[in-house]
């Protein structure tokens, strides 16, 4: 469900490619109803893709069968991949910009805001630009006064 | 006589033809009705409301309403009964509406009148009239209070002063620069004779703190004041105007030309006119210089009355604002105009809005994001009790629902409803780590760019987050993002800190914590062993606040914080908010460091063990920051922490300042209202917070 759409100029930003360096399994109680309700919300292809990235694809069918609700086996596999397999370290890669968002200790970092250093640099550049603009402006009055048209005007009586 | 009648008939036929063309819905009637169409007397013929009213009511007719239509040469009148209308028709049809008019008015009965535009009926938000605010004795005292230096000759006809007279107290308002000289108060403050009234203003809650500026205006009949907005930068939100002498109609306007909204408000004598919010910041107010007002329903008698102007002295109470106004509304705010270098006359440069955004980001970076990483452990320790109403929302979600907690902090609201899939996100890695150790699915991200696809979640909660965003655009953008990730029909719950910490007589838990302090003010000691700082609006954790620290904060912390040209005042903890945008101190308690040894036992441990390395990473020093060393007995972790904190005092804990924009009543709702596809389902006040539940409808 994660996307890098927040990055400028990214159209879809989905799905993010998972590069897993360290994966682990946890034990979560199987809740059939819960899994069953969650399935319609999933993008099946993205799920397969994600499962592939973490090396658990072989268990899942290529397309979601219609009668998934009755398929206890499939539900258990989904439960496993959705809730029990965790990426501890690695990164998520944006499909369009190839920008990598790190995952450490199981926490992805998808902060897309500019870090302070860059912000400050942008501000400094802007301020400098304004200064330059002002200094250029203050030089023009001399030139304007010497315009040929104005020189030709007769002085007021 | 009959010739005149025929002429009148022809003319009225012409007028009616024009009406037919403009408003085909309105039909003339042969038989008398309650409504009269008045041709040849309208705004474009320079008809005066008062003269029309005078014309119609001079035979004693009771007139309910009169409508002059913008851009038209006709108007309408409504009466209580057909008889009244008939009376008016008979006396006024074919008559001159004013002595100098070039041609008479022509009337006809009609079956209905155009509806009054909705905007005109409701007063601008934030406007209130409090009648009988002072007694007649007080009124007399006030009217005689000031010596206007008048000579007898001034009142004689022909020598009437052209303009109203003005006196200032407390601070002088300079009409040239339209501002107050904050550094040079006048020798005289608000006269003592008004102490009782000033006290009444605060006690009744019209202003959170006593006013310190008074402007007295004396109006003679025929004098007025041009429409204006009181400058944002000079004064705080509430502007109170007390009327003595005669009553007057005040005009409120918003917008320009055809789209302009106009509302008239009658200010009776001895009433207090309260202007706050949009009525104070966006709508202009003014008094038309004329000799009579048309007032509706005066003295309990229905209908329109002509009220000739009388001498009126108004007393306007205001509080001088510290720092700049941060509403960012470049159309009317002098702070915003100055700060952005934006001259509304020259047209907007797009780079200015970008630099505004960067300024806002910078403020947030310094006074929100970095601070939370520093105080994460201590912060998490004080955030353990979830608010019942939020829990109710979370627990009401059905099986299989997906919930996103935007700005989840330490995960206080995660893990309660076992039937749902939940995720949390926050900008602070330290806080997110705490969530992770508690077993929740979390990531770090910014609320303005949520890394989720459209329509992913069934519900979103955002508790005490968007009041940290430093501009209205950004606050609106965060709501937009929340709406984006919600599926249609999904609901969101947002909590923000309220400016109004007191509802009626009931103080919020936040304020109540200060009870001890109020009694001990001036002692300069820590009251109680565990003096800590604010816990937002949670009750119980801290028992007092040291007035000693208060003094230090006022003296030592630089008032001008990140934005050099827009200094933010520092709030005094556990008191009422004076302004919407301020820095709220957080005194970091070092006791967390003890827990470093007890790993795994306590959730607080993680933050401190990693805080050193994170501080090294964040040793990017901002221009305005002066890193000071803290001579603290608590070891090197607080030295690292001190790099980015704002006040350091020898032997005491570092103080961080968090930026807040506290919300006023209705502000959050209005923000939601600006987004199409968001419908506000519920809006309420919960322990010092304004709360909204919205639903995505499209």
Automatic annotation (TrEMBL), chain A:
Superkingdom in the source lineage: Eukaryota
Record keywords: Methyltransferase, Transferase
GO biological process: rRNA (guanine-N7)-methylation; tRNA methylation
Region (Disordered): 136-157
Classification via InterPro entries: Trm112 (IPR039127)
Single GO MF annotation: protein heterodimerization activity
Record's keyword annotation contains Methyltransferase: yes
Coiled coil: none
Keyword Transferase: yes
Gene3D superfamilies the record matches: 2.20.25.10
Chain intervals with Basic and acidic residues compositional bias: 140-157
PANTHER family: MULTIFUNCTIONAL METHYLTRANSFERASE SUBUNIT TRM112-LIKE PROTEIN, UPF0315 PROTEIN-RELATED
Protein name stated in the entry: Putative tRNA methyltransferase 112-like
Organism: Penaeus vannamei
């Amino acid at each position: 469900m994660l996307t890098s759409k927040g990055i400028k100029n990214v159209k879809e930003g989905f799905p993010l490619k998972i590069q897993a360096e360290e994966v682990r399994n946890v034990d979560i109680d199987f809740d059939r109803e819960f899994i069953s309700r969650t399935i319609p919300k999933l993008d099946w292809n993205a799920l397969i893709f994600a499962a592939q990235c973490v090396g658990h694809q072989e268990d899942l069918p290529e397309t979601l069968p219609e009668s998934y609700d009755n398929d206890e086996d499939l539900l258990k596999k989904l439960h496993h991949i959705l809730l029990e397999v965790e990426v501890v370290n690695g990164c998520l890669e944006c499909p369009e910009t190839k920008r990598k968002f790190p995952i450490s200790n199981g926490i992805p970092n998808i902060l897309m805001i500019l870090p302070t250093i860059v912000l400050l640099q942008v501000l400094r550049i802007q301020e400098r630009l304004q200064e330059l603009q002002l200094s250029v402006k203050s030089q023009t009055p001399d030139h304007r006064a010497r315009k040929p048209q104005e020189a030709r005007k007769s002085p007021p009586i | 006589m009959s010739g005149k009648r025929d002429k009148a008939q022809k003319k009225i036929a012409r007028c009616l033809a024009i009406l037919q063309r403009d408003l085909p819905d309105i039909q003339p009637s042969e038989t008398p009705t309650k409504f009269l169409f008045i041709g040849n007397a309208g705004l474009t013929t320079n008809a005066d409301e008062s003269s029309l009213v005078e014309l119609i009511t001079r035979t004693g007719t009771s007139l309910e309403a009169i409508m002059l239509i913008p851009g038209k040469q006709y108007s309408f009148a409504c009466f209580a009964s057909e008889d009244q209308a008939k009376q008016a028709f008979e006396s006024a049809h074919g008559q001159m509406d004013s002595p100098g008019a070039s041609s008479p008015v022509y009337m006809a009965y009609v079956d209905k009148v155009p509806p009054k535009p909705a905007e005109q009926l409701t007063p601008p938000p934030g406007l209130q009239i409090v009648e009988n605010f002072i007694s007649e004795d007080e009124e007399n005292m006030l009217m005689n209070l000031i010596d206007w230096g008048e000579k007898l000759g001034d009142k004689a006809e022909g020598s009437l002063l052209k303009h109203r007279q003005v006196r200032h107290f407390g601070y002088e308002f300079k009409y040239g620069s339209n501002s107050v000289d904050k550094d040079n108060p006048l020798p005289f403050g608000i006269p003592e004779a008004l102490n009782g009234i000033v006290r009444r203003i605060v006690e009744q809650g019209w202003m959170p703190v006593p006013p310190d500026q008074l402007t007295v205006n004396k109006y003679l009949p025929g004098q007025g004041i041009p429409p204006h907005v009181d400058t944002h930068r000079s004064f705080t939100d509430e502007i109170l105007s007390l009327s003595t002498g005669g009553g007057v109609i005040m005009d409120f306007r918003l917008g320009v030309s055809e789209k302009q909204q106009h509302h008239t408000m009658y200010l009776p004598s001895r009433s207090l006119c309260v202007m706050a919010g949009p009525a104070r910041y966006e709508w202009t107010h003014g008094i038309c210089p004329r000799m009579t007002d048309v007032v509706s329903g005066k003295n309990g008698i229905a209908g329109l009355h002509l009220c000739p102007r009388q001498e009126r002295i108004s007393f306007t109470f205001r509080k001088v604002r510290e720092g700049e106004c941060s509403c960012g509304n470049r159309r009317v705010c002098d702070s915003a105009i100055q700060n952005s270098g934006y001259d509304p006359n020259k047209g907007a440069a797009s780079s200015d809005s970008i630099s505004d955004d960067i300024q806002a980001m910078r403020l947030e970076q310094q006074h929100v994001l970095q601070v939370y990483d520093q105080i994460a452990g201590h912060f998490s320790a004080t955030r353990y009790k979830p608010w019942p109403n939020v829990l109710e929302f979370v627990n009401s979600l059905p099986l299989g629902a997906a919930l996103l907690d935007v700005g989840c902090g330490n995960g206080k609201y995660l893990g309660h409803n076992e039937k749902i899939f939940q995720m949390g996100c926050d900008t602070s890695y330290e806080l997110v780590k705490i969530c992770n150790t508690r077993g929740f699915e979390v990531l770090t991200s910014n609320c303005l760019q949520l890394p989720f696809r459209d329509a992913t979640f069934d519900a979103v909660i955002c508790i005490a987050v968007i009041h940290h965003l430093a501009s209205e655009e950004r606050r609106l953008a965060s709501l937009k993002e929340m709406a984006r990730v919600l599926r249609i029909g999904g609901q969101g719950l947002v909590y923000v800190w309220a400016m109004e910490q007191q509802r009626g007589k009931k103080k919020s838990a936040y304020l109540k914590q200060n009870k001890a302090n109020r009694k001990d003010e001036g002692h300069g000691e820590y009251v109680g062993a565990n003096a800590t700082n604010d816990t937002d609006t949670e009750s119980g954790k801290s028992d007092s606040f040291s007035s000693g620290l208060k003094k230090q904060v006022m003296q030592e912390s630089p008032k001008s914080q990140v934005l050099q040209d827009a200094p933010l005042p520092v709030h005094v903890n556990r008191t009422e908010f004076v302004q919407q945008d301020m820095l709220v101190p957080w005194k970091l308690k070092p006791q967390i460091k003890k827990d470093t040894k007890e790993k795994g036992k306590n959730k607080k441990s993680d933050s401190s063990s990693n805080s050193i390395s994170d501080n090294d990473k964040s040793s990017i020093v901002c221009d305005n920051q002066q890193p000071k060393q803290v001579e603290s007995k608590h070891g090197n972790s607080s030295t690292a922490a001190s790099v980015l904190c704002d006040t350091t005092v020898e032997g005491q804990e570092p103080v961080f300042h968090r930026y807040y924009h506290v919300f006023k009543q209705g502000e959050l709702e209005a923000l939601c209202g600006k987004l199409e596809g968001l419908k506000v389902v519920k809006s309420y006040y919960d322990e010092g917070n304004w709360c909204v539940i919205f639903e995505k409808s499209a």
